[in-house]
Specification:
The chain is α+β, with helices and mostly antiparallel strands. The protein folds into two domains: 166 residues, no CATH class; 59 residues. The chain is 42% helix and 19% strand. The chain has a seven-stranded antiparallel β-sheet with strand order 9-4-5-3-7-6-10. A three-stranded antiparallel β-sheet has the order 1-2-8, covered by helices on one side. Strand 4 and strand 5 form a beta hairpin.
């Protein structure tokens, strides 16, 4: 049985190169939620200080059922992820989820990843503690990663600013949010215009002339207009 088949049978999403996809893309995260994992990962040059940091992070996590892999100066700890991919990303100074951070170890730059979104890793590149790896442990047997744990790991380390990659993700998310807001505003403006036109069309008609159904529609349109005006006054 191939490594890819073993990983798939153990409940992980896998790409064509045999790497585990932490959060497989779909219209909603629910489609592949049963395969989703999250990682805490440090990539740095190998040194005594880095190995001591690995030990520190493992102790902060305090999750013996999580999978722990080592490759030189890199450490990866694998968890189950039960929520949306960004739900386990600790917050930055702006209050936004941030998966990738720069850290300094022994005077040298390194990278800390805490999350699931846009992450993947090749399990065959790591040496796994206790011979427990994605090849031997099913995804559903892993403990879940919670935001409290992610935040505690970040808080325990000398963390710098966002990496360029994370800034790109942030800007992409903000741009998408702006598009959604603009679309909602445009739709709301169209609804308002439709209500105004509907009232104008029927403003001189009696209830007898327009009928019960249309009269109810006129009343509903009038109430929506009043509600919009009330929201504008409250926002001012």
């Amino acid at each position: 049985m191939s490594n890819t088949t073993i990983l798939r049978m153990n409940g992980y999403s896998v790409d064509a190169d045999g790497s585990i996809i932490c959060a497989r893309e779909s219209v909603t995260h629910k489609r592949y939620a049963h395969e989703q994992v999250a990682i805490i990962r440090i990539d740095a040059g190998d040194s005594k200080a880095v190995r001591e940091l690995h030990t520190q992070v493992i102790a902060v996590c305090d999750e013996p059922r999580a999978l722990c892999g080592i490759r030189g100066g890199s450490l990866i700890i694998v968890f189950r992820c039960d929520g949306p991919p960004n739900s386990v990303e600790p917050s930055d100074a702006r209050g936004w989820p941030q998966a990738v951070r720069e850290i300094v170890i022994d005077g040298k730059a390194a990278t800390l990843v805490t999350g699931s979104r846009s992450r993947s890793f090749d399990p065959s590149e790591f040496e796994w503690r206790g011979k427990r790896s994605p090849f031997t442990v099913k995804r559903d047997e892993l403990p879940p990663l919670h935001i409290e744990l992610s935040q505690s790991v970040v808080d325990s380390l000398p963390v710098g600013g966002t990496t360029n990659e994370q800034d790109d993700v942030y800007e992409h998310d903000m741009a998408a949010a702006r598009v959604r807001v603009a679309a909602m505003q445009s739709e709301e403006e169209q609804h308002a215009a439709d209500d105004e036109a509907f009232l104008k069309e029927h403003e001189n008609m009696s209830g007898y002339a327009i009928g019960t159904v249309v009269a109810a529609q006129v009343t509903a349109a009038f109430e929506r207009i009043k509600a919009r005006l009330r929201r504008k006054r409250e926002a001012a």
